[in-house]
Structures
1.
Amino acid sequence: MNTQKTTIFTNSENRLDSLCIANNGPDIIETNYCQSFYGRQGLLFISVNAGAFRLLVPPQRKSAIPNMRRGAKHVVLSLGEMLGRQMIEWLVEDNSDTPYAVYVETPVCDRLFGPEDVGKEWRASVWGFENGKPHKYFERPAYCQIVLTLPWLQKISQ
């Protein structure tokens, strides 16, 4: 097993907080996300490693996971501005008129994608927690794009 650890430091609640993620390639093998500022606040977190975008879902939002997975063909990540902030739209493409989408502010991501990443096929996975351990609920192909404004809610233009 080739493990790699990522540590993100944040200044939350006027103190230094850290989020640690131990990776085995694109998989998360261990994390303190649920105990971190992000997890405690119920914030979704996007982590990137080994060609995969991983959406971490805190226990208090676990009920949303079945809606994300239903009919999922691939995931489109769109980087753009929303309400005066730079955000990422995580859209689960299911070929319906109402795909599932969530919005994550860029400070709640450990890496942003840039123009050099557009046009490549990535992997996207959704992670929750079972018995306190990371659990991958599903994985699909992913594509990223940079747009002017969000919500974008459109299929990827390839």
2.
Amino acid sequence: MTGIVVITHNGRMPSEGGKRMGYMCDGRIFPLPGISITVVRPTTPSRPKYADLPRCRSAANRCPNCGSGSTNYFMISFAEGGRSALRCEECDTLMRSYYD
């Protein structure tokens, strides 16, 4: 049992100006009489495209974000399939090779 959660029209508590629409308890939703509540599930995030990654700053594979030269190649799954990409060790930015 997780307790009772108040459902409001804007996500704020009723004391902060939220209009009470119903309650949720143990994953079940109980709307107030006369009010319909539509439950929207978040969409699953799509895989990134390789072309959307920023390109390295130079042929020495410098990071476009911080300029660091400490980068490592690794395999990652993109929408086009598995490709090798670079990750900066300093700022953790994903990037593609300078020649791609």
3.
Amino acid sequence: MGLATCPLPLQGGTPTRRGATHRFGNLCYHQAASHKGLPYTAEMGHTMVTVIDEPIQVFAHFRARTFSPTRFVWRGRNYEVKRVNARWIVRDGANRRYHFAVQTDGAGDLHELYLKSESMQWYLGRIDTDG
């Protein structure tokens, strides 16, 4: 499929050392924080990308100096995390956002979850759905 970029320009935030884009499944995209308040759905190849940016409840496994989400609740529905495909940190001054690209028990959809260090609140950033 190659690489695709989201249709919205990057706004604010500090890119990670990999630059302003990150690999997520078969997509290359701008950090989710750049889309805050701008919900959109975009088709990229055979993948539909929907930005959500809503607070969620997350259950996570903590071990040594690392942690991973194991399950989350969004709009009253439970999602079991089957696999963490990627993880990265976005720095914004003293604050950090810990991002996770996860697969759930659904039909192969990818969910981007992130934890804001300043509020310790988890968010569902976006969902990538195979079309």
4.
Amino acid sequence: MSFIRIYDETDDVRIQGFLAANRSALNLGRRHALSNGADCHWLAAERDDGGIVAVGAIFRWGEDYAYREAGAARVVLNGYGIHRVLMLSRIVHECIALPGFSTFYCSTLEVNAASLRLFASLGLSPWPDPPNTLRERRVILPDTVGPLLFFRIPTNKLALYARELLELEHKGMLPAKHGGEPLAMALDIDVLRNRHDAVVRLALGEDAMTA
């Protein structure tokens, strides 16, 4: 059975090497974002041989990092829902490890059908009028790639997200969406290793900002 480990990646060179080797029009501007005032926390998924197969970031903007963006997801091992696991992991991590933000959001291109399906399944709310500074930080996109859409991550669903993350940790496996052998998974992320009790409290419905 194939295996992946999802973990906190602190080696920016390794992340940027993965993104450069797996370029996508859907990730336009992420290098721009990193050089335009963002603090960043990365999660990655790697095979048992150490090769990265997926990454996702949290960008922190503004005074006291009031704005948080779950972005820059790039997955090259498809068919197992790794993007969803990365999204849940980033949301729960940020709400517990570094609370205090006023706005948690994500953005994607209108042509990115996979991300739009994921956002809908997570119950994210369309955000038609984000501040212009957030659009500028994301990137000025060429007309050829289509409109950029923004979504708010609802804090009233945090307990659901935490419960799903804990269930994934317990199962340790991702089924193949279209049949075939499942994928063994270890959720080796900081918030589950060092703040597991807080994740459990969040799953029980406690306020994310005080969990």
